[in-house]
User: What shape does this take?
Amino acid sequence: MIAYPKSFRERWEKPSKAEPQEKPTSKESLEVWKALTSEVWELAMSNYYFETWMWQFKKVPAAITRLNKLVNQLHEKKTAEIMENELRIKLDYIKNAKEMLEFAENKIEDTLRTLWAKKRELE
Assistant: This one.
């Protein structure tokens, strides 16, 4: 059995309150609708993986705290070098994740601005 994060389970169990959408009628609208459905699916999957990642990521601060306490117990330089290497790898991973999230956030904000402009144009 897969252990899902509590927030994911809560959203999964709650019925969706989505409003019924009008089906497009023109050929162009159908093509846009199909593309939109495909991209929304991609976003939904990324949300699932992000939730799974965050559930694991929440363990990191406690692990780092425990590692910090272990530093005082080190007696060999080689062990300290291994620990340093692992911490540097983790830091690089976190920096890369942060950059990716900032990039995604900017792309979403740009797309929302474009969407809002289009909505005003369509009114």
Observations:
- Residues 40-73 form one domain.
- The chain has four helices and no strands.
